């Protein structure tokens, strides 16, 4: 069944996470990211300053016509882990650029993305995200540059 809910701009006005949020608070906050959590089935496993681990159980929706996990599914999981790592105990932050390298085809049925801060400043942050499957296959790596826009004048 397709969700026919009309777009609502107020969705962009969620209150920020409190300082040092517990894992359940992070999960609740990001449960509003319907694409990642509902459609793609991403789950937050760990969250801390500059760090996040998210997973995705692979099923038919993630598999392309050749029978492999779709690149877009891998990217979505990596991008979701990035969102958590770059926003945990930081002002609202958005990705400016992401580069992903697909290294190997997953052999397992579960993908795990680990995002780590490389360098974080007042306005910009740089992050590295690795995606493995549960068997240890290194499926992809992403590098990302993020921006903290702050209040508008």
How does this structure look, described?
The protein has 153 residues and is of the alpha+beta class. The protein has one domain: Roll (Thiol Ester Dehydrase, Chain A), CATH 3.10.129.10. Helices cover 20% and strands 35% of the residues. Strands 1-2-4-5-6-3 form a 6-stranded antiparallel beta sheet. The radius of gyration is 16 Å and the shape is globular. It starts with 22 loop residues before the first helix and ends in a 6-residue tail after the last strand. The model has no long low-confidence stretch (mean pLDDT 92).
DSSP E strands, number: 6
Summed over residues and divided by their number, the pLDDT gives a mean of: 92
Name given to the CATH homologous superfamily: Hotdog Thioesterase
Number of helices: 3
- Note the beta-strand portion: 35-45%
Radius of gyration: 16 Å
Give the overall silhouette: globular
Give the ordered list of helices and strands. HHEEHEEEE
Structural class: alpha+beta
Poorly predicted spans: none
Determine the fraction of residues in helical runs and give it as a percent range.
10-25%
Question: Order of strands across the widest beta sheet?
Answer: 1-2-4-5-6-3
Q: For the report, how would you describe the main beta sheet?
A: 6 strands, antiparallel
């Amino acid at each position: 069944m397709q969700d026919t809910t009309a777009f609502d701009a107020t969705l962009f006005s969620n209150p920020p996470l409190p300082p040092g949020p517990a894992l359940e608070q992070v999960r609740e906050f990001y449960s509003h990211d319907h694409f990642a959590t509902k459609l793609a089935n991403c789950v937050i496993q760990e969250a801390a300053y500059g760090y996040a681990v998210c997973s995705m159980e692979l099923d038919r929706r993630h598999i392309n016509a050749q029978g492999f996990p779709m690149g877009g599914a891998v990217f979505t999981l990596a991008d979701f882990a990035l969102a958590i790592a770059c926003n945990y105990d930081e002002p609202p932050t958005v990705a400016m650029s992401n580069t992903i390298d697909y290294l190997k085809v997953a052999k397992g049925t579960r993908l795990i993305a680990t995002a780590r801060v490389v360098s974080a400043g007042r306005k910009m942050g740089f992050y590295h995200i690795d995606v493995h499957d549960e068997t240890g296959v290194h499926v992809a790596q992403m590098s990302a540059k993020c921006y903290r826009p702050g209040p508008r004048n």
